[in-house]
Amino acid sequence: MNASPNPVEQSFEIAATCCADLTPLVYQRLSKEHPETQAMFRSQGSELVKGSMLALTIEAILDLAGERRGHFRLIACEIASHDAYGTPRELFLAFFAVIRDTLRDLLRDEWSPEIAQAWDQLLVEIDAFAAVQA
Predict the structure, then answer these.
(1) Thinking of the domain 7-133, which architecture would CATH place it in?
(2) What pLDDT does 132 receive?
């Protein structure tokens, strides 16, 4: 397997070697850091919803950090739909940082300064993108 030159993509590739499914780790962290999110997911079938939501988010992240073929535009659509659900914008944006922090914890020593810088830049871009949608 050839490693991606994109540090954000690298972070997901490395994580995939030590974790088969990020979903439980991401949502445990989200619940811990933002307990108000627990009530946002129904008890029956929420695991499928969470997995799908995370997969779509990762796809958008990778596109935004990479070739920008259009998948990143899902972020704007989800901003609008989460606004309609009454999800605070700050909470919506926090989800991206939760993903980053989960990856950082998984990667440990493999979390390089380049990966950290790429993620920091990506989160700034997502915040700016959200500000335009306001």
Answers:
(1) Orthogonal Bundle (1.10)
(2) 79
